[in-house]
Specification:
The structure is a homodimer.
Chain A lengths: L5 H10 L10 H21 L2 H8 L3 H7 L3 H13 L11 H17 L1 H13 L3 H29 L10 H16 L1 H9 L4 H16 L16
């Protein structure tokens, strides 16, 4: 886990221009990776642009041509990395589409982008600029994907139309953050064992999310009235 | 929002001994509040035990009698504050019980405990001890509550028995974290306007969570087969 595969990089670069991001260069990637490494070792408080530049093998002048400040560097790195979801396949079923979305988010959170997001969440408690970027980096990319998943399912007749379909993004991101950031066993497995703890989380979450969206599942019906 | 009400404090103090926590004293509370304030101003990296002691109006010797180190102080404060959920009412319905659980978690996350958790999540990216405490402080108290909510609903026949009922805790905590920590509008409303943005989140989340648990809601049925 962790490092993005070549195919993901290519897919991300391919989507980049459409989303207004400059195309990655080797030097940009080195700066992104160096930022993640230095953050992980030193935290946001201990990070200096000089340390990042040195780690990336570039001059601080080069760094400052791309990023105006330390804050700008960290925010930009998080947004670019964390919002790089893979391509969104149309699997033809709600379960397939939802699994792809969950898996993609799990991979993002378990990788270097996830470590950046850890740091951003921490700093956002006392840094407004960093607080504002969290939505852009974490929620917004999933909100678009979730809307597409719901629209396809409604179009196929798999589920009835939903009010507040954006809540799906909160459920997808939130449950993944809860499992991968807040639950220690899962977090530790992700860095030690090979198999992703994200996969275990997905298997458990999927039936709940399918029912939440109104899809019929094999859960036996209670045969009772709704609670009010 | 933010400050706990007197009745919450009393309720928390009343539950304290049963959960093995020492009873709050005025000095303890002053240290907890000072820790939250200093963390919010300076972040974890900038916090010193001397600054916390000074803010609380106690000597550093007094602080060290209660907490062995800065890490111990922050972890202990977070666990104590964030896990102080209110009493768990038995409302007689799944919707009522779930609303109470969501509201309680929202109040915790929007208050001082939430700001501490922000900081802990950030530091947990490069501090194992802090990473381990997140489960204790955030997930575990909700897991117990969620299990009770599900058990009552199954006993009443409101929902069929659930596998992996602990997933409800991830959905409750995760969706609240997503709405209150990661979505900027919600986070800012919580600190400026009076009315809680948690209430808005609860209203939107509730129908999804009820369906996720297998409760019948007024969502029209799709009349189709499950997606697999």
């Amino acid at each position: 886990m962790g490092e993005r595969t070549e195919s993901n990089q290519t897919a991300a670069a391919g989507r980049g221009p459409a989303r207004g991001r400059p195309r990655d260069t080797a030097r940009d990637r080195a700066l992104l990776e160096a930022t993640v490494q230095v953050l992980q070792e030193s935290g946001y408080g201990g990070l200096t642009t000089a340390a990042v530049a040195k780690r990336a093998g570039v001059s601080t002048a080069t760094l400052y041509r791309r990023w105006r400040s330390k804050e700008d560097l960290v925010v930009g790195t998080a947004v670019r990395w964390a919002s790089d979801l893979g391509p969104q396949p149309d699997t033809g079923s709600l379960e397939g589409d939802l699994t792809a979305l969950l898996r993609d988010k799990a991979e993002t959170l378990e990788g270097p982008g996830g470590r950046l997001l850890h740091v951003l969440i921490g700093e956002s408690a006392h840094n407004e600029a960093l607080a504002r970027v969290l939505d852009t980096a974490i929620i917004e990319p999933v909100r678009d994907r979730a809307a597409t998943v719901v629209r396809r399912a409604v179009d196929r007749g798999d589920i009835p139309p939903l009010e507040n379909a954006h809540v799906l993004a909160d459920l997808v991101v939130g449950s993944m953050v809860s499992r991968l950031f807040l639950t220690p066993d899962a977090a530790h497995r992700a860095t030690t064992d090979g198999p992703s703890s994200g996969e275990a989380a997905i298997a458990e979450l999927l039936p709940f999310l399918l029912r939440a969206l109104g899809a019929r599942t094999d859960l036996p019906s209670s045969g009772l009235q709704p609670p009010h």
